Structures are given as C-alpha cells and as structure tokens.
Amino acid sequence: MDSRTQALCAFLDASHSVYHAQAYLSKTLEEKGYVRLFEQEEWSLLPGGKYYLTRGGSALLAFRVPRGEITGFTMSASHSDRPGFKVKENFELTSAYTRVAVERYGGMLIAPWLDRPLSIAGRVTVETENGVQTKLLDIDRDLLLIPNVAIHMNRQANDGYKWNPAVDVIPLAGGKDAAGKLPALLEREAGGRILGQDLYLYIRQKASVWGVDGEYISAAALDDLECAWGCTQGFLNAKESRAIPVLCVFDSEEVGSCSPQGAASGLLEAVLGRICDGLNLNLSRMLAQSFLVSADNAHAVHPNHPEYADPANAPVMGGGIVLKFNANLSYCTDALSAGIFRKICAKAGVKVQSFHNRADMPGGSTLGRISLAHVSVPTADIGLAQLAMHSCCETAAVSDEIDLETAMTVYYGSALEATRNGFSVT
Ligand code: CO
C-alpha cells in the first residue's frame, strides 16, 4: 500500500470523534514544528513562522508566514465532524437489559449502524484544581451493539422500513446486572466526576483498502476526514510562495455550521484579521488577492443506481478531484474560481471532474457558502467522489485522495494575484 494511503488510514483509525481528529491533526502539525497559539493571548508572528490554533476542542486552523513580500491568503476549509449518534445526558435505560439512550447528530443513514460492534468516544469536562478542564475520552473496545429485529418478526424489513430513532436504534450495553457500570466506567476513564459530555458512538471497524486492484477505501467519516487529511498534507508539503497558506478544519458542518467552532463562526475572519494586524498588512487588499478551496466530499455515480446522477456531470471514484457546481450557489464554484482551480490541477497533473445534481434532485450544500458570509473571496467547491455518503462506513477511491494531496501541494505553493481582469497563478 502507498505510504500516503497508510498515513490516511492511520488518521482515520485514530479519529474516533471530531475531538480525536483535531488532536491527531494538532500532533501532526507539532511534529512538523508548528507552534500552538491561543486566542486569549497576544501573538507575535515572525517571518518564516509556522502556527496553529484550535477552538472548542474540535476546530483547527494553521498558517505559515512567508519570509518575503506577502500578496494574499491561499485557504482551504474542510470539516471533521460526521453524522452519528450522540449519547444523551441521562443515558442509562434499564429493563431486562441495560441500554444507552442516544439521539441523532446530522443527516445519517441509520440501517448500516445495526448489528456491528460500537463504542463511545468524544470529550468530557471534569473539575480540577485549575477549574473546569476538558478531557478526551475513548472507550477503545467493543462495547455496544444495536440489534436488528429478526426477519420472522418484521417480515416487511426487506421491503423498506421506517426507522423510529426513539425505538429502533437504542444500543444494548449489557444485562440487567450491567446497570450503573457504564457511567462508572466513563467516570473512571475521565478521572473524576463528569460535569459535561460530548460523547458519540463510533463503529469499531478499521479503515480497509479493497477491490481487485486495491483501488477503494472504506471507513467511517471519509466525509470529510479524507479532504481534511488531503488538505493538511498539501499544506504541509507545499513550498513557500508569496501567499500565506491557511488550513481550516471546522466542526459542526453536518448540523449547519452554527457553533463557535463551525464555518459560520467568526473564527477564520478573526484569525485573518489578527494575522494582518500582526504583520502590518491591509486585510481588504489581502482578501482581494485571496482564494478559498472548500473541500467536502461529493457523490460518485452509484454502480447500481446510475439514474440518480446527472447524465453528463457524474463523477466516478478514481476519476480525480470533483469540482462542484450549482446555479443557486449551494456550491460556490463559478467561472473564475473553476478556471483558477483547473489551472492549479493542470499544474499538478491531476484530473478534474465536474459535478452537478440532477436538475430534479435537491443536493446538499457545504461550508464554502457559509464561510463566504464572513470571508468573501473567490471559492472553489471541490470534493472527492464517494459512495454511501453519511453511512457509518463510506467508500471512496484511494487514488483520488492522493490526487488531492498533490493538487493541494501545488495550490498552497502558488500565489494568486488579482489582475484587472482575473487572477494570475504563479
Ligand atoms: Co461533508
């Protein structure tokens, strides 16, 4: 297996929650010499400096300061949250069995969650001598399972079934005697009384590379950890240019991005402002020469259901990076941003394919559009083609993620300069 794919799998296998994804990316940046900044402190930014910060335990933002003249920002935005089940506050349900009460986070496919080992990961707050502290938590063993009803009791199960989230998807934790043991286990792992919790279920299956030619990868949260990783690798590998490279990995995309750590927050705008203040740059002039790649996965044409795809704009897995278009701007790509992004991919030697929704099917939207409300720059909405979006186990092509790393390396190593009639890409 290609070492880049191995590194992607290691990231996927370590990212059991949005908080664990942030911790892994932070560690990756620190290993490359990035210095952590804190929003509440003063920053002194130096030419050649490499910095990152986090917000809310989940969002991550990194940037570098070029040594010479500075012309603009080359930015990317992706997200590290995923649809799934969140554990409720009073979660223990006892009857003949002990079960765990959960509610849905985001627009998920329910059926794939059943009959497979699950566990719990996320973060908790505990009280310490220094006040209320957050702590990562991961019960790293097979712990729970949501059992299906046998076909004998639900003869219509194969004819389409309407899932009731309050009844059908409550995970089983143990027998009657297990009552009280899971809260105690969580407190033990937390190292103290839990004051608050953001805990989610996750599947125990590791990332798997498969197919006749090993061309596919299946894992939890490929949407959008695959783009988060590809953008991070491109950001780290890029040579210095006259632009300030900025990497953003947001939380809360699957529920509309409205949180202090989502793309609808003022996080990116605030950081760009502080960078300009610290380096004595004019923010408006910088933004006029800036660009955003909004990277979030895209629907591949389905092997069994090609009819759901647009006949002429249907990306395939393994066909290269997907550029997404929508006339009503649920995707922000336009003639200018498409031209710039295609030029960058040509420079990188990476194929690009186009995506439109079928005209009679409403599609999703993504964080580019939301981020634009705060930081208004030309934006290309891109993604990697995948199947089974929002299943707990999604499928994509190995080669597409490598293409993204290659394209983002060229993108982050380029400077964009506004001309009177477009942009030059150097
Ligand atoms: Co997504």
Q: What does this protein look like?
A:
It is a single chain. This protein has two domains: 3-82 and 220-425, Zn peptidases (Aminopeptidase, 3-Layer(aba) Sandwich), CATH 3.40.630; 85-203, Aminopeptidase i, Domain 2, CATH 2.30.250.10. It has helices spanning 3-14, 18-31, 181-190, 222-237, 267-279, 283-287, 335-348, 367-372, 398-412, and strands at 35-36, 50-55, 59-64, 72-79, 84-94, 97-105, 118-128, 131-138, 172-175, 194-203, 208-210, 216-219, 243-250, 291-295, 298-299, 321-324, 352-355, 379-383, 385-387, 394-397, 416-419, 422-425. The chain has 426 residues and is an alpha/beta fold. The chain binds cobalt (II) ion. The site of cobalt (II) ion has 6 residues, from helix 4.
Please provide a brief summary of the model.
By secondary structure, the chain is of the alpha/beta class. The protein has nine helices and 22 strands.
Unreliable stretches: none
Major β-sheet annotation: 9 strands, mixed
Number of DSSP helices?
9
- Top CATH class of the largest domain: Alpha Beta
Strand portion: 25-35%
CATH superfamily of the largest domain: Zn peptidases
CATH architecture of the largest domain: 3-Layer(aba) Sandwich
Oligomer: single chain
- Number of strand elements: 22
Query: Biggest sheet, strands in spatial order?
Result: 1-2-3-13-4-14-18-16-17
Radius of gyration: 22 Å
Separation of termini?
A: 33 Å
Ions, cofactors, ligands: which are bound? Answer: cobalt (II) ion
Mean pLDDT: 96
Class derived from helix and strand content: alpha/beta
State the share of residues found in helices, binned by percent.
Answer: 10-25%
CATH topology category name of the largest domain: Aminopeptidase
Shape: globular
- How many domains in all? 2
